[in-house]
Amino acid sequence: MTTILCIDDEAEIRGLIIEELAEAGFATLEAANGREGLELLVTKWPDIVICDITMPEMDGHQLLAEIQINYPELSNVPFIFLTAMTDKQNIVTGLRAGAADYLTKPIDFEILLAKVEGCVARIESDIRNHRAF
After folding, report:
1. What residue spans of 1-133 are helical by DSSP H?
2. SS3 category, 28
3. Percent of the chain with pLDDT over 70
4. What are phi and psi of 6, to 5 degrees?
């Protein structure tokens, strides 16, 4: 079963995402900020991360950079940034930083699930291709 870590400092939004993912059949983990998220990433190794950008303690960009610099074994975990910042430059910055995708608030759950399913398909394809070697 695919496990998804949702990191968002807004408990209500995080709860709605967790509920939607669970109803779609995914296992879930949740964290209220980047520091908590990093701890779960390192100890639980989720398959996908959905992460808000603007959070206290450690924001989404800082978290992604921390993973890429200090935890390269986790750098292939697909990261979907979630944010209210909808201008093009923020999207480009997030994607260039290594995010697999970008989702804006308010959340369209149909689009969220489509993006997650796309990540799952890529993960499964990578596994199949890796086994072929």
Report:
1. 11-23, 34-44, 60-70, 88-96, 109-131
2. strand
3. 97
4. -110, 120
Within 13 Å, how many C-alpha atoms sit on residue 113's CB side?
13
Cβ neighbours for 14, distance < 8 A, ≥ 6 positions apart: 6, 7, 8, 30, 32
- Collapsing DSSP to helix, strand or coil, 103 comes out as strand
Residue with tokens 């509920």: 19
pLDDT digits (tens, 9 = 90+) for 45-81: 999 999 999 999 999 999 999 999 999 999 889 999 9
- The pLDDT of residue 88: 86
Closest Cα partner for 57 from 81, 33, 39, 24?
Answer: 33
What tokens appear for 50 in the block? 């959905």
Q: Residue 122 in contact with residue 30, Cβ under 8 Å?
A: no
* Average pLDDT score over the chain: 92
